[in-house]
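Re: export button greyed out
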Amino acid sequence: MMTNAVGRITQGQFSFLPDLTDAEIALQIEYGLRKGFAWSVEYTDDPHPRNTYWEMFGMPMFELKDSAGVMLELQNCRKTFPKHYIRLMAFDSTRNIESIAMSFIVNRPEKEPGFGLVRQESNGRTIRYTVHSYATDAPEGERDSG
Amino acid sequence: MASPKYTIPGATPPPAGNAAANMAAAGVQPDSASGAAASDAGGMRTVNQVLAHSQAGAVMDELERDLIGLAPVKARIRDIAALLVIDKLRMNLGLQAQAPSLHMSFTGNPGTGKTTVALRMAEILHRLGYVRKGHLVAVTRDDLVGQYIGHTAPKTKEVLKKAMGGVLFIDEAYYLYRPDNERDYGQEAIEILLQVMENQRDDLVVILAGYKDRMDTFFRSNPGMSSRIAHHLDFPDYPQSDLLRIADRMLEQQNYRFGPGARAAFEEYIGYRIGQEHFANARSVRNALDRARLRQASRLFADRDRVFTPEDLTTIAEPDIRASRVFQIAAARSPDSTHTADPRHAD
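Workaround output, generated via the alternate export path:
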């Protein structure tokens, strides 16, 4: 059974929608900034659902007033990693929240290889199942997920 | 709704019009006030009609009222406001209008209002609709230039990102360039600054400020910087009459007023002070008034048992001003005296 018929990673907000345009991304950033969130840009070439911590592209951006600054960083990241997954995260520093309030993917490779099911035979013919990201089949430096 | 807002990925491609409409709705003018003004201004054909819908007129009036002197600066702001109005009229007729380059350099002697105007400029440009957020980020060399290799670029970029949507004010900008040290990191900051000033013209306005002669040297050694700045504003020294009006305004803001004879004494004070060393225009006036307030305070403090009226507490009397050393020095310098005082701390 295919649970993801369109072959797209669905993680974070808006991931079932078509890719947001830059103007739409800017609007989301504006919303977050109005709420006082700090945006950051992260990228990865391994979109495994358990890969929680992606690589940071620069520091989180505190005290911004306008989306243009985040968009600038995003464009730099796209230029550097055109074939990686890139996501924007908004950190809410309110006391007792102190966690990510928004997160959405803003860049994807052209071809997303998706995941395979791995069966591992264990004690007493028990089968353990896990998910394997096809994108990580090649060694890190040679992955061309696009 | 006839068509869904979003199509499912992999299904038929969305109609081309949709994306364009989204872009128009989202990208052009996020500022609600100017966005509303722009959409209302659809049928306007005269300057007055546009002025009624924008804040340009109010901004110009306020500027005239709040800032004393500074004629060249006001004239330039009026030009910028006029361009905004005309651009709106042009847009109504379908003529393409591109946002003008608004980077500025403020040069002038100490105390001529460079920083004050820069603070106001962010608000003015915001109300005219040229910058989206209208905040001001004031920095000096230390905020832009790093301590070691590789430190400068992230530092400068961070400041630039914070300033996006507003005004970046670089005070004493000539310190960025140190010609005596060719490995100085200031050059790196200048290069990043130039790049952003060129590419993100719609996103932020950079204002460089500094003393005239040193800024001229700075621009001579960085011609790229000079050519990317559209507005070179020179702040003239204030004439004596303007300084007196500035003093009036400062006292009024702090709920003080001149007592009988005090205003004339202060006028005399300004006349002497201009000729003496380290004169810093409005800043000298402010310092002089602060010292007069100190003298007023100790004069009142001496009267332990007196019940003060509001007049007592708000009045700067003539002796408070006459006690200044400036008068003594001026007297010492006059021809009938041979005594010379050290004028360096003559405030």
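The interface with chain B takes residues 5-8, 17-18, 21-24, 26-27, 30, 58-59, 61, 63-70, 72-73 of chain A (CB under 8 Å). The button fix ships in the next patch.
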